[in-house]
Amino acid sequence: MKRVLLIGALSAALAACNSTTLALKTVNDLKPGVPTALTSTQTAVVQSSLRKALKDPDSARFGTVAAARGPDGAITVCGMVNAKNAYGGYTGEQPFMGTLSEAEFSLRYIADTQEQYTGTVAFCKEVGAVI
Predict the structure, then answer these.
(1) Minimal CB count within 10 Å: which of 9, 63, 75, 105?
(2) Overall number of domains in the chain
(3) How many CB atoms lie within 10 A of CB 71?
(4) What is the pLDDT of residues 3-26, one digit of tens each?
(5) What's the CA dihedral at 117, 121, 122, 125 to 10 degrees?
């Protein structure tokens, strides 16, 4: 029941996302990965890619970043970023999620509502990338 509620909440949260909406697996396919430490090069790739998606790339302040290698070998990266919005004010830490290949980070989304925030953090915990 807890998994169904989690996926339901995450689905509702992600329904409001823009074109970078994450495609979720079914509840039975969602398996936790193994927590994985990112190298400094991998961290730089993630941060560089994430900055490109921000209104003010130079304002990015990164918080916790966690990664997990899934059963299929894919690395899911979750983290927190605080950056300036179009009005020049900091938004507060927002969770982000994406996948990392050898030299490329594909940002899936940055949560921008409370519902997305809650769903993203729960999803990241479920896959083993606790933020």
Answers:
(1) 63
(2) 1
(3) 10
(4) 433 444 444 444 444 433 444 444
(5) 170
Residue 96 to residue 65: CA distance in whole angstroms: 9
State the amino acid at position 112 in one-letter form.
D
Q: Domain range for residue 63?
A: 2-127
Report whether 109 contacts 18 (CB < 8 A).
yes
Our CA dihedral for 106, 118, 130, 97, rounded to 10 degrees, sits at 0
Q: What does the DSSP 8-state code read for residue 90?
A: B
Tell me which amino acid residue 60 is.
Answer: A
Which string of DSSP letters, residue by residue, matches 21-89?
A: PPPPPPGGG----EEEPPPHHHHHHHHHHHHHTSSSGGG-EEEEEEEEE-TTSPEEEEEEEE-B-TTSS
